[in-house]
Amino acid sequence: MAPARSAHQDGIGRPDELERLWTPYRMAYIRGENKPTDPSSQECPFCRVPGLEDPDGLVVHRGETAYVVLNLYPYSSGHLMVCPYRHIADWTETTDEEAVEIGRLTKEAMRTLRRVSRAEGFNIGMNQGTAGGAGIAAHLHQHVVPRWVGDANFMPIIGHTKTLPQLLTDTRELLAGAWDA
How far apart are CA 97 and CA 106, in angstroms? Predict the structure, then answer.
């Protein structure tokens, strides 16, 4: 039996013997296929999602002034966003009721993620404005990203790849079912 050889194609560089983890679903995000064409509420996905059935919109929980939804392009499994129903762009535009509920839903998201996935830590934050890194700057949203020791290790930094071991629909069902438990 001949020894295994690395695949090589002229013009693509030296073979590196690394495995490839393909993430073609990310191309929609990279191309901006789901991004609004303008900042109006008619173009806003965070305004459209509440009008969908929860499984179709990946909604995990609905509150009075805000709701919790899975991120369509997650950093890790269970990556949630807490969004006000109102189409506002900045934290300073929230009413007192919205600010309180966004905070309460963020805490409940953390509790639920700890319960169902044993999350060991979290990255929580809002990217305000395009210059602040907001992918959809016209509608406020708070990220709740569960983390585990060694969860992504070097993959995003060196491998430019995110590994997600669970389908979004399965994650939504698990979190929605455990939300009020």
Answer: 14
In whole angstroms, what is the distance from residue 169 CA to residue 71 CA? 11
| Number of other CB atoms surrounding residue 21 within 10 Å | 10
Q: Please list the active-site residues.
A: 141
pLDDT digit string, tens, across residues 96-124 = 999 999 999 999 999 999 999 999 999 99
* 135-159 residue pLDDT tens: 889 999 999 999 988 776 555 555 6
Strands (E), 74-117: 80-84
As a 3-state breakdown, the chain gives helix, strand, coil percent values, each rounded to 5, of 35, 15, 50
DSSP 126: -
Burial of residue 141, with CB atoms counted within 10 A of its CB: 0-12 exposed, 13-18 middle, 19 or more buried: buried
Q: Which are the contacts of 127, defined by CB distance < 8 A and separation ≥ 6?
A: 133, 134, 135, 137, 143
Note the pLDDT tens digit of each residue in 22-67. 566 656 656 666 666 676 667 899 999 999 999 999 999 999 999 9
CA 94 to centroid of chain Cα atoms: 22
Sequence length of the chain is 181
